[in-house]
Amino acid sequence: MYRIIPALLTVLLLLLSGCGSKDQNAFSAKVYPPTDRIATAFQYSQVPPPCRVFAHALVKLPAKLSGLEIQQLVFKEAGARGADLVLIGQTRRMEDDEGLRFNYYGPGQEYLCSEAWCGWKFGYDEWEDQGEWVNIGLLQWGNDQVSFEYPLMMQLALLRCR
């Protein structure tokens, strides 16, 4: 009887430890002072050499946003994290509207974009389940005349260039 109790307690502790686990996609990168001056790049080759990538993210955007609203939401998050440059990747249509959410995927340590960028290789399990491709480039980004009637998922990297 007394041998069973420690084993049961161990199993119970293991089960309960999973209940309070932290969000695996929460922001955990280096903390920089907030900024309100943020630039945008759509290709890693446009990123100036001194810029360091400190966060990778997939951004879930709700339906019925304009290009300007998307830019404002991304810049608000990036500025709060201290990014002064945002690298925008591809965008895909989502089936379900999950509201606004930034899911972060590292990196474990910041790196120089010009020397170590290896593409959009994070969050693949989440990314592969999305729908058709959606163009958000120079003509759509920040444009209040462009509207997206469906929810979106966008690849994003936050960089610090100072």
Main attributes?
two-stranded antiparallel sheet; 7-stranded mixed sheet; 9 strands; alpha+beta; single chain; 162 residues
Task: Note down, in words, how this protein is organized.
The longest helix is centred in the first third of the chain and has 16 residues, at 4-19. With 162 residues, the protein is an alpha+beta fold. The chain is 24% helix and 27% strand. The protein has one domain (23-160). The chain has 4 helices and 9 strands; from the N terminus they run H-E-E-E-H-E-E-E-H-H-E-E-E. The radius of gyration is 19 Å and the shape is globular. The strands form 2 sheets. Strands 1, 2, 4, 5, 6, 7 and 9 form a 7-stranded mixed beta sheet that branches. Strands 3-8 form a two-stranded antiparallel sheet.
Sequence of secondary-structure elements: HEEEHEEEHHEEE
The largest sheet is:
7 strands, mixed
For the record, the count of structural domains works out to 1
Q: How many angstroms does the end-to-end distance come to?
A: 64 Å
Query: Per DSSP, what share of the residues sits in E-state strands of 2 or more residues?
Result: 25-35%
How helix-rich are the residues, as a percent range?
A: 10-25%
From the structure provided, what is the oligomeric state, counting identical versus distinct chains? single chain
DSSP E strands, number: 9
Give the number of helices: 4
Q: Tell me the radius of gyration.
A: 19 Å
- What sort of overall outline do the alpha carbons produce when their principal axes are compared? globular
pLDDT < 50 runs, ≥5 residues:
5-22
Mean pLDDT: 87
Would you tell me the structural class of the helices and strands? alpha+beta
